[in-house]
Amino acid sequence: MGKAYFNxxxxxxxxxxxxxxxxxxxxxxxxxxxxxxxxxxxRKRELxxxxxxxxxxxxxxxxxxxxxxRWKGKEQKLVDMVRSYN
Length: 86
Prior knowledge:
By secondary structure, the chain is α+β, with helices and mostly antiparallel strands. 21% of the residues lie in helices and 31% in strands. The chain has two helices and four strands. It has helices at residues 64-71, 75-84; strands at residues 4-9, 15-24, 28-33, 39-43. It has a four-stranded antiparallel β-sheet, with no helix packed on it. A hairpin with a 3-residue loop joins strand 2 (15-24) and strand 3. The radius of gyration is 13 Å and the shape is globular. It starts with a strand and ends with a helix.
């Protein structure tokens, strides 16, 4: 895909100044942050794309609000945690 987007919020609530799309899924898309080189998941609506099935629910499905509340404004801490796994 490779299309560039600017000021995109990931599912953790953190803003990415410039991001490239890697792959588009049903309700989300994976992006690569140009400045850090890390990949993130974003909702399709953050990119101005229509979600295919926005209301499906699975038991134990990803809790967007809880995750956003936990990580909003803590992007560097999250990046450090992700990099520590490598």
